[in-house]
Amino acid sequence: MKNQNQHLTTHKFTDYKLPESLQGAIRNLGFEYCTPIQAKSLPVILNNKNIIGQANTGTGKTATFLIAVINGMLLQKNDGPKNPLATRALILAPTRELAIQIHEEAIALTQGTDLTSLVVYGGANYEKQQNALKKGCDILIGTVGRIIDFYKQGLISLKTIETLVLDEADRMLDMGFIKDVRYILRKLPPPEERLNLLFSATINFKVKEFAYELMDNPEIISVETETEEKNIEQVAYYVANNEKISLLIGLLNYYQLPRTIIFANMKVTAEQITAYLQANDITAQLISGDVPQNKRQKLVKDFGQGVFPVLVATDVAARGLHIDAVSHVINYDLPQDPEDYVHRIGRTGRIGSTGHAINFVCESYAFYMPDIEEFVGYKIPMESIASEMLSDVKPRAPRKRTNRPPNRGKKKPTNKKRHKHSGKTSNKPKPQKKD
What we know:
Blueprint: H1 20-28, H2 36-45, E1 51-54, H3 61-75, E2 89-93, H4 96-109, E3 117-120, H5 126-135, E4 139-143, H6 144-152, E5 163-166, H7 169-174, H8 178-187, E6 195-200, H9 205-214, E7 219-222, H10 225-229, E8 232-238, H11 244-255, E9 260-263, H12 267-279, E10 284-287, H13 293-304, E11 310-313, E12 328-331, H14 338-345, E13 355-361, H15 369-376, E14 417-418, E15 425-426
């Protein structure tokens, strides 16, 4: 494993004039040296300047903007009576998983202060979130739709926002949230009266165009993708479609991969993979968009704690899931969007660790590899498949079906006759025909 310090800089958090309560929270989290995106961004943000920040997932972007938000609030503390609706910072995230994890880090960084934070998102207890909002908070974190919902109910005042943060902005635009984000922007103070921070793993033309709509004179701060991916060892295997499961099970068994996320492009494929792994004595669980929120949170927590070694996922898990110590990512299907490749492999090789990304280049998705390599700017090494990598495969268990009633699909005989106009039925026997 590579030395953790080689993924950090020589800049320390103690180099910045942060309030002692915030410095204490940073120390309690075990942070001493800044990551590259933190070292480049914090001096600019702490000087109250807007930024567009670009770096891969797992490089400390969340801590960067939270430290800036909390610092600003502590330095400009309001001594007057607190208005429950007077939220001071708004952080928008594209997914509920990301919103939850931002909130968890916000709680940790506000320890020792009187600042409060709250997270709201769809798929959770609606009334509980309503009641929490009525008590007010300093930092509001949430998904776009739920923020708008509560705003329209009068539970959120957006006119008091001092800092706006858009996290994973590229994902937000890809998911079609731009109209809703614009709606929120129209309710905020003018751009020049607030601090605006936009963070994204990739910055394309669409993101830049939106950023200039969002804020005035932002400074673009970028940590090169290639630099961040040096701690991820990547490899590709050419494999026939009918050998993919054999290769997958062989790799998991032969190399005893400790904590692995397997990505598939479609839910049905992810379900098949999970069924095959379970039939072949590999403990695996599935996470996809239609898994209930509470179950998704438990699966992520259990996987992160090592309760089971393999998580099979659709792209719902490619963003917003911060799981420590993921040793391997396997792209069972190559992603159709090159940007998704960066986000998928970003689940491994997070700060201070070496990760591994394994790619199956199969008949169905091989033609996406050139676009991926062009996007990342390098060739992904191709290796041959050794015989010991292929495993015999036990058939997956058939899908369970509920027992059907014996007469299902057949009409039961009846002598009831429906009256034409009244809708009532009659049990009178039909009149017999005369001879």
